[in-house]
Amino acid sequence: MKMSPIKFRNELLDHLLNLHWKQWSAFGVSSHLTRNSNYILDLEALTVSTIALGLRDKRLAHITLEWLQVNRQWLNLHRMKRIGKLFTKYETYKQMSLLDSDVMDVYQNFLKPSSSLSALNKDYENYPSDSVNEHINLVSNFKARGTVVDPDINSNCLLQLFLRSIFGIDARAEMFLYFICGRRGNSNYISSEIHFAQRNLLKILNNWADAGIIEENLEVSSPDYGLKNHLSWIQALGIDNPSIYVNWSRIFLFLDRLVLGLENLQLQNDNYLASSFFRDLAQDIRYAASVTQVDLPHEKSLHGQAYFEPFAKCVLQIIDKLSQ
Description:
By secondary structure, this protein is mostly helical. It has 16 helices and two strands. A hairpin with a 6-residue loop joins strand 1 and strand 2.
């Protein structure tokens, strides 16, 4: 049986919500899912993506608020805001925004240490968007239910939190996570990967280079940095079988854009139009396929609507791999 855009949209949303539940379970949310992952998880990227999907699964949104309230000391609000800006930009199809900037403000205010729920009870008439009002109502009526536990920071998939316990909740932890996973890059590229300002990273990179923690490759136009004595660091930190590093903000941005695009009625009734939308996201699915090792047919090898079903099946395979 051939897959229609509507059927794909429903399966995509089910798979994507399950991926979010799986990751929050790894962080300590009570569920029937196992608390582990083959991939190193990203708290801020997961939080922003959950907010973007929140009204599609209010139970997930509620339990996320509870985890963040109980464990907010692990959250980097500055980094969350930078990732949130990627989601509030207009996306390619019909100028639809993945996430309203006012919605991000609601959650940012809720998560500030000095916040109170009463301060969030604003006059709903000030917000013309029904979606914003629904998020305000969700946050304002939030009540903890005791369904979360502290994260196990010694779990390989929570290496981000483990390193934050050492370096603090700042750029140093994210940069060391990037390096300990065997990654290299110049300051501009690292900035785009870990979502901190390049000028701040340069200071840390120079200090670490002077201390002999990282090495510089000066044979390229822009200095390329990598961790010195990589294996020794892994052994010293007691990291066994390191999980796989992926850029979760890029992955979630791609998948959330797919969900939003497929909610458009024109796409739901036209395989050719849906295929055209998919081709706009070809670069993003190539990245997701590469990190999950899913075979992906090239978009130029399939003409017109013939691209729809192979693309859809690959996306579902990718999410299944990411959920392992």
